TrEMBL record:
Principal localisation: membrane
Native source species: Pygocentrus nattereri
Tagged with keyword Transit peptide: no
Domain (MHD): residue spans on this chain: 340-607
The name this protein goes by in its record: F-BAR domain only protein 2
């Protein structure tokens, strides 16, 4: 028996050796069969790279936009430099050239923002493709888990086989009894059979694993090749955009150099003579005693529209207008002003709430808002006289609480690829804004300011917790009387910052032929409309019971019972919003002179 076991062991060793040689020839398996895990995570890293590339391009666009705005500001300052002296016309050359450079960089910003949209689209497609691939390679993952499980079992059976074999050899050398040797032989035979079964199972599992891994590895390779190719195409677009901008900048610089080369000293002096000259004829001779008379005559001739050739009408106009300007004081918005231009913003929100009886879980709330910018009428002249007025940009803050944002498509642009969910960048289409304000001015030329609706939004709501005034109603309808109680509670947590509710009114229709009403606090009964009206004082945390209270009424009926009806509630607030959304100007050129916030009840009803 021992001899048969020894022969079987020799054959088995040969089988294991062949199996080990095959394993060494397959590079994707490895000692722990982790090749699938490596390839899968490498695919996921591709999506991270796409997002990082998007962030890089976005940062480059931000840098270019900041530089463009700085150049626009520099060009604007050039137009405000001294216009006196022979050098004055040169500032126009600087201004035009700097404005063109700013436009070049802003055009690059536009191209990069379009590219960011493409990258984001690719990231979304990539996520869908990876999800699909994960489903397709699920069977491979199962094969990996199977071979890892079988490998562990094979290793244990091998260790058990070796242990039992060595134990049998030791007993032989020590001269154990035949009975003990037979028992040990049985254990060796059993261990050999188990080991052999796992070797065979491993062989079949390995075949399936290698087939699945080969197919999956090819799939992962196709994905990576496609990913790298797509990334190269994005980088190529990025490179072309930057290269085009550099070419444009070179052209603008060449134009600037040519303009300066064509600007001679003689030409500048000639321009000064033409613009500031006071006449070509020499003054005639006169005696000293007639000087005063001559001067007064010149002024009289000027105001009558006739003036001698040695007086410049332009110069007199300038001097007289300067005196008038000084006497009146500066206008809030003037062409000569170097201060940032004032604008105002208003956030107006409306809360529509539907309360059902006294059940707070059935409260339905919808909150909408409007953002309006207000421009002084004098700003129109600045916009129309400037070939490229400073771009008005702003950040909308606390946008994570907004469910939907609807910008004015004709006037407002935004970066849809922003990753920050709590802020959103916008900038106005200045030519479209200028045209709109000009149209407003033509329709109402005497107005001192013009309002522009720039965006609408809807606020995320959380049921009754989002309402500034929580309500509950209780009806008790009998054949001859109806008892009504309305509980209300001020909710400061719904507002940012908390503020008082003003002009609070509650309107309740009551049918059944009301002949008499008793109410606390006193309500007004309208017989024609069959409605009672409560007008309440301002409600806030400083009110009695921290803004909580009840409205009670008893109605005597001639044709009862009453049928519970829908109540209507009205209130206002100045200085707060329900969303907490806010606006911050970005860049220079403008200042926020007023930031107004308010909300009102829309359709608020209780049934």
């Amino acid at each position: 028996m021992n001899q048969r076991i020894h022969v079987t062991r020799q054959k088995f060793i040969i089988l294991v050796k062949i199996m080990q040689d095959n394993l060494q020839s397959y590079p994707l398996i490895g000692e722990k069969n982790n090749g699938f895990d490596v390839l899968y995570h490498n695919m996921k890293h591709g999506q991270i790279s796409s997002k990082e590339l998007s962030d890089f391009i976005r940062e480059r666009a931000t840098i270019e936009e900041t530089y463009s705005r700085s150049m626009t500001k520099l060009a604007k300052s050039a137009s405000n430099f001294s216009q006196l002296g022979t050098f004055a016309p040169v500032w126009d050359v600087f201004k035009v050239s700097t404005e063109k450079l700013a436009a070049c960089h802003m055009e690059l910003v536009r191209k990069l923002q379009e590219l960011i949209k493409e990258v984001q689209k690719y990231v979304d497609e990539q996520a869908k493709a990876h999800k699909k691939t994960k489903e397709e390679v699920a069977s491979t993952l199962e094969a990996v888990q199977n071979i890892q499980s079988v490998s562990q079992a094979l290793q244990k059976s091998k260790e058990n086989y070796n242990s039992k074999t060595l134990e049998l050899e030791r007993m032989r050398k020590e001269g154990a009894t035949q009975r003990d040797l037979d028992k040990a032989g049985v254990k060796v035979k059993k261990a050999t059979e188990v080991y052999k079964s796992y070797v065979e199972k491993y062989a079949s599992t390995k075949t399936e694993f290698e087939q699945k891994m080969a197919e999956t590895a090819q799939k992962f390779q196709d994905i990576e090749e496609s990913h790298i190719q797509h990334m190269k195409e994005i980088i190529q677009s990025y490179s072309c955009s930057v290269e085009d901008t550099h070419k444009q900048i070179i052209e603008v610089h060449k134009e600037f150099v040519n303009n300066m080369e064509n600007t001679s000293a003689a030409g500048l002096i000639q321009k000064l003579a033409e613009s500031k000259g006071t006449g070509k004829e020499r003054p005639g001779k006169t005696k000293h005693k007639h000087t005063a008379v001559s001067y007064n005559t010149d002024l009289c001739l000027y105001f009558s529209g006739r003036y001698p050739p040695y007086f410049s009408r332009d110069l007199l106009n300038f001097e007289i207008m300067a005196k008038l300007w000084t006497s009146r004081g500066p206008s809030p918005v003037t062409l000569a002003s170097q201060d940032p231009l004032p604008i105002a913003v208003a956030f107006t929100e409306s809360v529509n709430a539907y309360f059902k009886g006294a059940d707070p879980s059935k409260c339905i709330v919808k909150i909408t808002g409007d953002m309006t910018l207000s421009f002084p009428s004098g700003i129109i002249k600045i916009f129309t006289s400037s070939p490229s007025p400073a771009v008005l940009s702003f950040k909308l803050r606390n946008t994570s609480k907004l469910e939907q944002i609807l910008p004015n498509q004709h006037l407002l642009h935004s970066d849809s690829s922003q990753s920050d969910t709590n802020t959103k960048d916008f900038w106005l289409n200045m030519p479209a804004l200028t045209a709109y304000l000009r149209k407003c001015s033509e329709q109402n030329p005497v107005s001192s300011y013009y309002n522009v609706d720039v965006l609408k939004y809807q606020v995320c709501s959380n049921g009754i917790q989002s309402t500034p005034l929580n309500l509950a109603v209780y009806w008790k309808c009998g054949s001859s009387t109806t008892d009504l109680r309305i509980d209300y509670r001020y909710n400061p947590e719904a507002m940012q910052p908390p503020g008082p509710l003003t002009s609070v009114q509650v309107l309740v229709p009551v049918n059944g032929g009301v002949t008499n009403m008793q109410s606390l606090p006193n309500a007004i009964w309208n017989t024609e409309q069959s409605k009672s009206l409560w007008k309440l004082n301002d409600i806030s945390e400083k009110s009695e019971n921290e803004g909580s209270g009840s409205l009670r009424a008893k109605f005597e009926l001639s044709d009862g019972p009453s049928i519970p009806a829908t109540l209507a509630v009205q209130f206002f607030n100045e200085g707060s919003t329900l969303s907490g959304v806010d606006m911050e100007l970005v860049g220079s050129g403008y200042r926020l002179s007023l930031n107004k916030k308010r909300f009102t009840s829309g359709k608020t009803s209780i049934i």
